[in-house]
Amino acid sequence: MSSDKTSTRAFRNLSNRTVLIILGPVVVVLTVILARAGASWPALALPLGFLGVAFAFLLFQKASRPSYARYLYARLGPGGPGRCLGHMFSRAFGASDFGRFWQYWNPFLGYFLGYFCYVPLRRFAPRPLCLIVTFALNGLLHDQVYVWSFGFARTERLPFPFPVFTLCLLMIAVIILAAERYRFTLAHLSLRRRVACQLLAFVGPFAFSVGILLLTRL
Fold first, then answer.
1. CA pair distance 201, 148, nearest whole angstrom
2. pLDDT digits over 97-112, tens only?
3. Which one of 8, 143, 196, 205 counts the least CB within 10 Å of its CB?
4. Residues 70-84: pLDDT tens digits?
5. Cβ distance 145 to 43 under 8 Å?
6. Rounded distance, CA 142 to CA 169, Å?
7. Which of 39-43, 59-63, 167-171 has the weakest average pLDDT?
């Protein structure tokens, strides 16, 4: 019990600089692995540039936002990294609506997209537009790293790689906005049915996007 409290306290006290020191080498190693696996360096320019700008903001800009450690604690609660990972899955797939799912899923990327994309846009743009742009940027990052870098989405019918994750996440953003518009909630459902609905809303758009990609190759 005391060891859990010590781990939680240490995890909460991580500063922004400490998080960067830990995650910086991870990003570099991941980039090198992707490059050696066949990804071209120009294809990795967008995600690396985005992360570089985000790291620079964290290091040198003082803003009214929580540190990453406090943000992670607020989203996933107490515990070390292993326990937080379990909390991420349980809280995301057990969420009471589709929008709340993304408050728990992938908090690392959510932190940067939230405070460096959604929040600045929200100062002058309506929420639906901010949500769509943020999810589109999320999709572009995923396409660059996991799809375009390896040439998986090339098709003769299009002059550019097919945006698999971008289309998928744009559809998810539309689902979230539609659910909010019509006040659709999963709160009255059992945990199993919530998980099933969240999986459908998560996997369904991705399967549809992959299907469109396959149709463009016929």
1. 24
2. 999 999 999 988 898 8
3. 196
4. 888 888 888 777 788
5. no
6. 10
7. 59-63
Instruction: Give the dihedral sign, CA 4/94/166/173.
Output: negative
Token pair recorded at residue 113: 């997209």
Domain boundaries, the chain: 2-216
**Cβ of 195: how many Cβ atoms within 10 Å?**
18
Closest by CA to 209, choosing from 156, 170, 167, is 167
C-alpha dihedral (19, 104, 12, 139), degrees to nearest 10: 10
Q: Among candidates 26, 25, 43, which has minimal Cα distance to 145?
A: 43
